[in-house]
């Protein structure tokens, strides 16, 4: 899951932070691929509109 996709989905960094219950500065610290725990949280919040498949696929190849 890419940070740019998440921010676009929620409509900005502040709205993303509010949806996740975190500070906007936390989002700034993410790399372009967001942390795994947040990816699953976002997948849940968005009802699967944004998927954490990146991490599921990583587990399958390990």
From TrEMBL:
One of its GO terms (molecular function) is DNA binding. InterPro entries: Lambda_DNA-bd_dom_sf. Gene3D superfamilies: lambda repressor-like DNA-binding domains. SUPFAM superfamilies: lambda repressor-like DNA-binding domains (SSF47413). This is Cro/Cl family transcriptional regulator. It comes from Vibrio casei.
């Amino acid at each position: 899951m890419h940070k740019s996709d998440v921010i676009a989905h929620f409509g900005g960094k502040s709205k993303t932070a509010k949806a996740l219950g975190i500070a906007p500065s936390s989002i700034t610290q993410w790399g372009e691929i967001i942390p795994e725990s947040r990816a699953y949280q976002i997948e849940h919040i968005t009802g699967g509109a944004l998927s954490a498949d990146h991490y599921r696929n990583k587990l399958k190849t390990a």
